[in-house]
Design brief:
The structure is a single chain. The chain is of the alpha/beta class and 377 residues long. The protein is 42% helix and 16% strand. It has a single domain (7-344), classed as TIM Barrel (Alpha-Beta Barrel). It has helices spanning 7-19, 52-55, 72-84, 109-118, 138-147, 164-171, 180-189, 207-223, 241-247, 256-263, 300-312, 316-324, 328-338, 346-359, 364-376, and strands spanning 29-36, 39-46, 90-96, 123-130, 149-160, 193-200, 228-233, 274-276. The chain has an eight-stranded mixed β-sheet with strand order 1-2-3-4-5-6-7-8. Helix 3 runs parallel beside helix 4 and helix 11 (300-312) packs antiparallel against helix 12 (316-324). The radius of gyration is 20 Å and the shape is globular. The structure holds iron/sulfur cluster.
Length: 377
């Protein structure tokens, strides 16, 4: 796949990764539950050394985890227990490593096949894995198909924004959108479904622009052949560039109203394809997240409860309730939002790059060259 590397962001992210606190060795697996279609959604996470892209200077908002090497035997034993304890009648089951399930560097074939073997007595309506799009392979999809008992198998992948400039210069995703086509074909050829994760609160963009980009990204992803999308409002996690920018007052965590604003733009008949995730902080450990998307003390619980309802049933009825929620914090948020430009503010981004370059010891020459390149692109 064609790479789309921004050398300044890559350098900064490598430095941030070096200083990032590794995950504790325990727990090596975590299970969490939510409700979808009035049935059970379960996510099983397991420890790996972490995402290979992250180790090489990864995405600016991500700290999925700087993982530890674990013995395949131990992980398989723990996963066997977790899988055995799953309730019956699962609507959705997602098994996810600390990055990409189909990446051989992260989840070697031996562990992947072992996990598939553990699933032979499990049934679920939908089964999902998360993986970077450049790791999708027909062989591994075939292996899944032979073992997993599910009505539908989804390959969920982080797209974040359907815009190559933003992916390169704001997210550092190292991916070109034109490369998605072959991977989508491979997924569909295997009789599986493709799901795109779209972000809200992209670093270097103001909130209004981030909302606009999220809306276009959802529309384009569905038009280009993704079967569903999941909207993720970004939290500010320690050990990320978002956190550094936030500490410098150069980035603000998005509001939960931004998620509702995005949901409000689509025709009702599209909503069953537009899902939401991680609008709550599900971690028990308070050190995992510095700041989460929020509203205010008065309306927070009502907003979260309705978002849970939307997660359970993404439909017009719940969306209508979300759109008609009123709170003075929403009015203030909206007024501020409308003052922001709805375009990429290149001058501001260039100023942030210069500050970043200075703080991370990058030569001014390199930063200026990059700014010229970004401006022309
Ligand atoms: S968002 Fe995905 S691809 Fe990017 S660093 Fe995190 S796990 Fe890796």
């Amino acid at each position: 796949m064609e790479k789309n590397v921004n050398p300044v962001l890559q350098f900064v992210m490598q430095e941030i990764y070096k200083k990032r606190k590794p995950l504790p060795e325990i727990p090596r697996t975590v299970v969490r539950y939510e409700k979808v279609q009035d049935k059970i959604f379960s996510e099983i996470w397991f420890m790996t050394p972490g995402c290979a892209h992250d180790r090489n200077g990864g995405c600016t908002m991500c700290n999925y985890g700087k993982g530890n090497h674990v013995s395949p035997k131990e992980i398989a034993c723990e996963l066997a227990i977790r899988i055995r304890q799953l309730p019956k009648n699962l609507q959705e089951l997602i098994i996810t490593p600390t990055g990409s399930m189909l990446d051989e560097q992260e989840v070697p074939l031996e562990i992947f096949t072992e996990i598939l073997g553990l699933l032979k007595h499990t049934t679920t309506s939908d089964f999902l894995i998360e993986t970077r799009i450049d790791t999708v392979s027909a062989e591994k999809l075939e292996l899944m198909k032979q073992t997993v008992h599910a009505d539908r198998i989804f390959i969920e992948t982080g797209i974040e924004a359907w815009d190559d400039w933003i992916l390169r210069n704001c997210v550092n995703k190292n991916m070109k959108l034109k490369d998605l086509g072959p991977a989508l074909n491979t997924i569909h050829h295997a009789g599986m479904y493709a799901c795109a994760n779209i972000g809200i609160g992209i670093p270097f963009l103001n909130e209004r622009m981030s909302i606009k980009v999220a809306v276009t990204s959802v529309e384009t992803a569905l038009k280009m052949g993704f079967d569903s999308v999941v909207l993720f409002p970004y939290h500010v996690k320690p050990g990320t560039l978002s956190a550094w920018l936030w500490e410098q007052n150069l980035y603000q965590c998005c509001s939960l109203w931004a998620l509702i604003e995005v949901l409000g733009t689509f025709p009702a008949e599209m909503l069953d394809k537009i899902h939401i995730s991680w609008y709550r902080n599900y971690y028990d450990d308070p050190q995992k997240i510095l700041l989460s998307p929020d509203t205010c003390d008065t309306c927070r619980e009502d907003v979260l409860k309705l978002l849970d309802d939307y997660k359970n049933h993404p439909c017009q009825e719940v969306r209508g309730k979300l759109l008609s929620l009123s709170c003075s914090c929403r009015d203030i948020w909206k007024q501020k939002l409308l003052l922001q430009p709805d375009y990429v503010e290149m001058d501001q981004i260039a100023a942030i790059y210069r500050k970043m370059g200075h703080a991370f010891g990058i030569s001014p020459n390199m930063v200026e060259q990059e700014i010229i390149y970004m401006t022309k692109e």
